[in-house]
Amino acid sequence: MGSITEERKETLLKRYGGSKNGTPSGMGRRGGFGGPPRGGMAFGKPKNAVSTISKLLEYIGKDKAKIIFSLVCVIISSVASLAGSYLLRPIINGLIKEEFTGTQKLNNLITGLLIMAAVYLAGVACSYLQQRIMIGVSQSVLLKVRGDLFTKAQKLPLKYHDTHTHGDIMSRFTNDLDAVGEMLNNTMQQIVSGAFTLIGTVVLMFVINWMLACVMIVIVPLLVFAGRFIGQKSRKYFTTQQQSLGAVNGYIEETISGQKVIKVFNHEETAAEEFAFLSDELRQKQMKAQFFGGIMGPVLGNLGQVSYAVSATVGGILCLTANFDIGGLTAFTNYSRHFSRPISELSLQMNIIYAALAGAERVFEVMEESPEKADEENGVEICSGDCRTEKGHIIKGEVVLKDVSFGYVPGKTVLKHINVTAGPGEKIAFVGSTGAGKTTITNLINRFYEIDEGEILIDGINIKNIKKDSLRGNIAMVLQDTHLFSGTVRENIRYGRPDATDDEVELAAKVAYAQSFIERLPEGYDTLLDGDGANLSQGERQLLNIARAAISKAPILILDEATSSVDTRTEKFIEKGMDRLMKNRTTFVIAHRLSTVRNADRIVVLEQGEIIEEGTHQQLLDKKGRYYQLYTGLAELD
Description:
The chain is of the alpha/beta class.
């Protein structure tokens, strides 16, 4: 570990442990896990606790009757605990009274013990009931919140998902909701129980002997100060522990997924040293966090023992000098022994409350995000063959971009006055450097983003006037990133059109040239795919993507660098599949390999968001401009 420079150490801590909620700050959108492992909580205070509590109460309020009953059970359980200790007074006093006979003392003892047992049994029953009820309430609340959060996530615009890591969004569903669940399961009733027990204990102390109670009250500030001091230290070190835990987990995730690169460049030793440094940082933080977290109980417990000793000593003196009864002293010392317990519980619950409110606040932040722009009230439905509704407009597939300008960020234009016309069944190719705006055009055609100026028309209808579901249902896409879902091959192909028959699924596979490799799979079309199709090659995954697009029967097709990550042999099969797929469809092709766009009806060359050339493959070669330079190798796509 000595070979790691101080500068590198700072970089590692900043890159992997910079986020306070345990999310490694260096993790990207894909592959990031977003936060500490399940069960880890996001420490820190909420920004607006009042607003967050108000929103939580809206969910909790739907089970108001159950919560009220649960709180009544908590109060009865607390009263039973307090009453059980107080019953020691008459029982002991009855045993030492000289005027009672032995039989009377025995009867009084049995009666007192039976009453005490009944009181404690009532308390146990109420504790059981409130626990069962609150578990049901908390899980019901989490079910509603989780459902609303997932529904909202589906309605958020693509811009939100592009600007927030997947790991960060996932942490709202896991760590943050876990923290809320922990608070609802235990914290609420423990706070009520602790507060009621503390107040009841103080009241009963004064009832038993006000002088002795005043002596005990002097010790309270010491208990409160100790609980607050240790709680603040504990919260501080648990926060740094979560940061270090996120750093270690982030580094592990990145190195495990990048093992091939690490081995190729002989970085095993460096990786081991860096991990050892991060792991040692975690060890140091955990030692401090666990130390302060562990001493809370013993410190307050010992202070409770001190108060017990003081009360016993002073109480003994009062018994000798002020006719204080032995039973009262026994009950009082019992209260004093446990006096620190509710204070300790209340102090410990504050960390959980902060974590839960901070987590709930992050969840509600997502829920308050503006959803994707709603459809126009009289939105048009379009279709390409047999319309599903009477209002459907049968489209031929003409797409026109008329003077379109757009920027993802205000003031920074990505596309400038784009004019492109694609006739029905035409194949339009976009080429240009990275960042020229090729993919942005396809995003705008799908209305993933709203254009700033100009308009996009499909068969003369402005896409702003077309219902989004209808619009996107008539556009099929094959992307460079091949995302497959957990399920069978057949289910993944059918994702393009859920009502497709098995015969149509197999026909789509044949169109995509995927039939041969599917039949070689262990279960054929019923073969289960691992995570994102990990048990298939990149080319096979892409062929399934093409089959998915083929089954959709959408009249407009977008191919976004669909062959950029496969070998040339596989590319030929994919190109054959795409040629079949593009037949009789209006197609937009984005490709880095210019050999894949030679047969396009028109090639549009983009640079810095502007169209600089347009024409067929031969026309652009004859111009000897930018396309000619790219195709002949005189210039390279960057």
